[in-house]
Structure formats: C-alpha cells, structure tokens
Amino acid sequence: MSLNESSEDPRFIVWFDIDNTLYSASTRISQAMGQRIHAYFVSLGLSEEEASGLHHKYYTEYGLALRGLTRHHDIDPLDFDQKCDGTLPLEEMIEPNPA
C-alpha cells in the first residue's frame, strides 16, 4: 500500500521506544522484553543456544531482532508484536512519576 492509499483503519499509530529512554531502567522493561524476544526465537524451533545467538546477531546487525526476523524468516511482524510487546504488563511495571 502506498502512503496515498487509505487503509481500513484510519487511526494513526504512534510507536514509543521504551528501551530505558522513556522509563527508568529500574522498571526492568528491557529485561522482560528480552525474555519475550528470546522465547519468540525458541518458538521458531531454535534451541536455547541458537535462539540466543541469532537474537544477538540480528540485534547487532540490524538494531532490532524484528528486522532480522522479517528479513530472514517468514514471520508476521504483528504476531511478533503481540507476543513480545503486547504481553508486557506495563501497568504493573510503570508507576506514575509526575516529577
């Protein structure tokens, strides 16, 4: 779809990078996300060791594990998002900080 074509859902999507930039590292969001990404690699049929190696390789080469997964594997990025980002219990991990 080109930028000029309309989609079924007219809402704008805003992505926030929450890797210790918007929230303190003490929330451990990055660690929780890493565990979910690792589990996703394992769900592709990789051993724990293979999953760790490939996750690190894609993160290093592409800046995102997802970019490597979409480039080299037949995965649905929305499935990845749902199983990794979508399962983070952010309501439990982040507390309001009005400062």
From TrEMBL:
This is Pyrimidine 5'-nucleotidase. It comes from Serpula lacrymans var. lacrymans (strain S7.9). One of its GO terms (biological process) is pyrimidine nucleobase metabolic process. GO terms for molecular function: nucleotidase activity. InterPro entries: HAD-like_sf (IPR036412), SSM1_domain (IPR052791).
